[in-house]
Request: fold
Amino acid sequence: MSGEESQEGLDAAELDDEPATDDAEEQPTDQERDTDVMGDEEADLLIPVDEYMGAGVHIGTQQKTQDMERFIHRVRTDGLYVLDVARTDERIRTAADFLANYDPEQMLVTSSRQYGRFPAEKFAEAVGARARTGRFIPGTLTNPEYDGYIEPDVLVVTDPIGDAQAVKEAITVGIPVIAMCDSNNQTSNVDLVVPTNNKGRKALSVVYWLLANETLDRRGADTVYALEDFEEMGV
Reply:
């Protein structure tokens, strides 16, 4: 992992409230309902492509980074970048393969983003991991004198920008980082990218749901969760 600290100045607490565009991103328009969301290759997906699209998993932002260019399938006429859902599907499987090698209690998942908090906590509950949602308290991974200090072996974050403090501390202590990354994310401090819309409620519910079930499957567990388990009721 790189020791870059380009995100140090970001305060995750400032990203607790979702931008107004998030709800719009969760409700695909007619323009978003096309089928051009992946490459031409045949893909045996975990769920039908229509379900990925219905949750808006493919919908990126109007900005892209060079880091994320390889995960972008095309750009729409309105300037939104479309993530390749086949790559998303592939990376969910890869992340599950990776996480299955760790003791559940040594896995930590974080989400400062409001829409990621419930599915992140549900993921932790499903796989036996620990969760730290909302503002990530500085020193959680680096200050043994802090009451909430923990020593995980791997970190899963909902957004490398919103969860910058957690990523920074993971780098300091030398543990790998798996991150849900949108088209506008830098990935220099991320070990394994899962390309996805990381701002929409439905998209995050789908990705965390699939990641939980795939991780459990790798462990040989019989438990299978439904998508509804990862969707916060009453919102």
